[in-house]
Automatic annotation (TrEMBL):
Database matches in PROSITE patterns: PYRIDINE_REDOX_1
InterPro entries: FAD/NAD-bd_sf, FAD/NAD-binding_dom, FAD/NAD-linked_Rdtase_dimer_sf, Pyr_nuc-diS_OxRdtase, Pyr_nucl-diS_OxRdtase_dimer, Pyr_OxRdtase_I_AS
Gene designation: merA1
Designated name of the protein: Dihydrolipoamide dehydrogenase
Disulfide bonding pattern of the chain: C44-C49
Free-text cofactor note: Binds 1 FAD per subunit.
Pfam family, one: Pyr_redox_2
Length: 475
């Protein structure tokens, strides 16, 4: 028999956004049901952020031995035991998994149903032999790899970010299709772990990012031995012995690249197949995306969407921010709105590339007046001490000194960008950061230095010099 229960909030999907909504609402006193048909923790924990960063950590450790000579050291790394690397990745996932486990959420008071859910009405859902009647619903179903309709692709065993971490053996030659963040990160990780890597990108590497910053990453990838092919389109895929044959077309015509494995990293897509949205009166647009208002409400005002399901930036930290918006709207009737203006993003290559706010190109396209402040890593003492001087910080500033956007490319860029994200969110001017007292020697000095450069033309100009000479007469 089907069990029927009434709850305040029903959450579909136990990824970053769904878990944040469920935990927050339950701990604040709401009754919550959570449907998850797969693994708790969603993509981020199991096949995304966590395993990719764990693999990158192993890769950077191996690379450290390769470049130890710059510190006056001689070091070698034994040929990579791929199974041990894979176990390291799985160990990291296992260490974090209890935080996202069924047991923990049941401890919060959440009813977890390990099943697919579908709507049967505006506020009713069914799954796993349970019918749920909810005051509010949050759709947090995430996204899946977007696979292009490439001729022959369905006839080969290709990899995505959901399967690449399960390889038993190290790829001898990995072909990577897609030069976005995922493609660049995984290409570099495999190259530093001893794989031959060819990366194919139809347009420009890290296309949405600041071109100067992307140049720094491109140089690093090529130093790692990656064959970076830009402006090259994939035409077809086929078998080549025990491997893969990828035919591409670029400025020099058609060419066939052969490798042992093919990783498809051409973005992610959102799908609501099987949810029966029409039964709940939930509208989608011509591309199949949910039609949402600024409060993340669907056309059914009792149903919200968070994270990738909301159709915006596909980041775990955005999903977390969305959770706060949904909780405010549902539990407290507070008309909170989602705002992506100050959301930072990071590509976790070495060096990292981080961005918050608009880029130069975006500001110019909008006709916005701005100035550019820069500071190179090479003029940071900590970077020099660690022989890691590639990169820079670039800050875009309005004529009144307000910070509009920032790009950082270099070691720990993902950590430094948070300060600029705060500055943009709080509408701070450069003076607030120029006055910071930061510990020495740290890369955080770059924040202070680049902000202080706003004042250099005035502080060291002729008028200041004349004023000082005049005041010194009376000293």
């Amino acid at each position: 028999m089907t069990e029927a229960i009434d709850v305040d909030l029903c959450v579909i999907g136990a990824g970053a956004g769904g878990l944040s909504v469920a935990a927050g609402a339950s701990q604040m006193g709401a009754s919550v049901v959570l449907f998850e048909r797969g693994a708790m923790g969603g993509d981020c924990l199991n096949v995304g952020c966590v395993p990719s960063k764990a693999l990158l950590a192993a890769a950077h450790a191996a690379h450290g031995a390769d470049v130890a000579g710059r510190f006056g050291l001689d070091m070698t790394v034994a040929p990579t035991d791929w199974r041990r690397v894979r176990e390291h990745v799985r160990g990291v996932i296992a260490a974090i998994a209890p935080v996202d486990s069924v047991e923990r959420y049941e401890g919060f008071g959440v009813r977890v149903i390990p099943a697919h859910a579908r709507f049967t009405g505006p506020r009713t859902l069914e799954g796993g032999g349970v019918t749920v009647r909810a005051r509010f619903v949050a759709i947090a179903t995430g996204s899946t790899p977007s696979v292009p309709p490439l001729p022959g692709l369905d006839g080969v065993a290709y990899l995505t970010n959901e399967t690449v971490f399960d390889l038993d053996e190290r790829p001898s030659h990995l072909l990577v299709l897609g030069g976005g963040a995922i493609g660049c990160e995984l290409a570099q990780a495999h190259a530093r772990l001893g794989c031959r890597v060819t990366l194919v990108e139809a347009a420009r590497l890290l296309g949405p990012e600041d071109p100067e910053a992307a140049d720094v990453v491109r140089l690093s990838l090529r130093r790692d031995g990656i064959d970076v092919r830009e402006g090259v389109s994939a035409v077809s895929v086929g078998r080549s012995g025990d491997g893969i044959a990828l035919t591409v077309n670029g400025a020099d015509g058609a060419e066939t690249l052969t490798g042992s494995h093919l990783l498809v990293a051409t973005g992610r897509r959102v799908s609501f197949e099987g949810l029966d949205l029409d039964r709940a009166g939930i509208a989608t647009d011509e591309r199949g995306r949910l039609v949402l208002d600024a409060r993340l409400r669907t056309s059914n005002r009792r149903v919200f969407a968070v994270g990738d399901a909301a159709g915006g930036p596909q980041f775990t930290h955005v999903a977390g921010a969305h959770a706060g918006v949904v909780i405010k709207n549902t539990l407290f009737r507070w008309p909170a709105r989602a705002d992506n203006a100050g959301v930072p993003r990071v590509t976790f290559t070495a060096p990292e590339l981080a961005q918050v706010g608009p880029t130069e190109a975006e500001l110019r396209s909008a006709g916005t007046a701005f100035g550019v402040l820069r500071w190179p890593y090479a003029e940071n003492d900590r970077a020099q001490a660690e022989r890691s001087v590639d990169g820079f910080a670039k800050v875009l500033v309005a004529p009144n000194g307000r910070i509009l956007g920032a790009t950082v490319v270099g070691d720990a860029a993902g950590e430094l960008i948070s300060v600029w994200a705060l500055a943009i969110a709080q509408r701070l001017k450069v003076g607030a950061l120029a006055g910071l007292v930061v510990p020495y020697p740290t890369r955080a000095e770059i924040i202070k230095r680049v902000a202080s450069s706003w004042y250099v033309p005035k502080l060291f100009g002729d008028r200041t010099r004349a004023l000082v000479r005049f005041l010194m007469r009376f000293a």
